[in-house]
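Q: Give me a protein?
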Amino acid sequence: MNYKNILLGIFLLTSTLGKAQDHRFDPPWNTPPESAVHFTVPGINNVPDLYGDIVNPQLTIFFAGNQFMVVDDLLAAFKKEYPQYQRIFVETLPPGILAKQIKGGSLTLGNLRIDHQPDVYTAGKRTIEEMKDYFSHTQIYCYNNICLMVPKDNPAKITSLNDLGQDHIRIAMPNPLWEGIGEQIQASYKKAGGDALLDKIMKDKVATGLTYLTKIHHRESPMRILYGDADVAPVWTSEVVYQKLKGHPVDGIEIPDNLNTTATYMAAKLKKAPHPKAADDFLRFMETETAQKIYMKYGFSIK
């Protein structure tokens, strides 16, 4: 019997299991609401993009996913200003998925089917304008731009978008099919290196697995950076700000203005809002200095 091989096999198995059970950076990163029983199990029972009271909510909000970081502060401030609204349900899934949920009327997550229609939907300006027939009121409330998230100290020594075309660089890339940021990042690739860079990243490296297309970039991209599965992830600036506020070991690399895109976020009241007065109150709150300061705290800009 070759004991060296047996010991090596045990070591490799233990190492693999250890990595599989490493959840130290897993969401939910927000503070969960108070409850009689907390049963979040990392990697198994964990639903970070649904918040609050799903039963008989007094207000339902669908936020574009990358705004998950504002939810705790924003809802706490809103409830203080409008104490009549205490049961609030929020989703922070990718905006394209939320749009499909609005149009189709329901969404299933795991074994849970949700058929709530939102009172308020927030997303990028283009998405809101494309769905204008669904809304009775829209308003701009903040802006954001793109940067590159890398592990702390940038071990791959990435300095520019063109570096993402290198054969050994692993990228966590938002899927343009349902994440608006994906299209904007592709535009930045094309500005930086033309069709050659775009094809390298979005065709060649997708085929080899070096470009990983996310389903929920605001969760997967930071996690792939934090767990060492990616060297770089194009994200919204607010996402780097938030991970640093959490004390997570990431850094951000700025993208020059001439290669960047500024996203304009809009909030919209649904024509079929189940709680129209609550929607009006929340949209009014979004225009206050209190709400604006919360967005600025997490890296969004107001002007």
Observations:
- The chain has nine helices and twelve strands.
- The two ends are 71 Å apart (CA to CA).
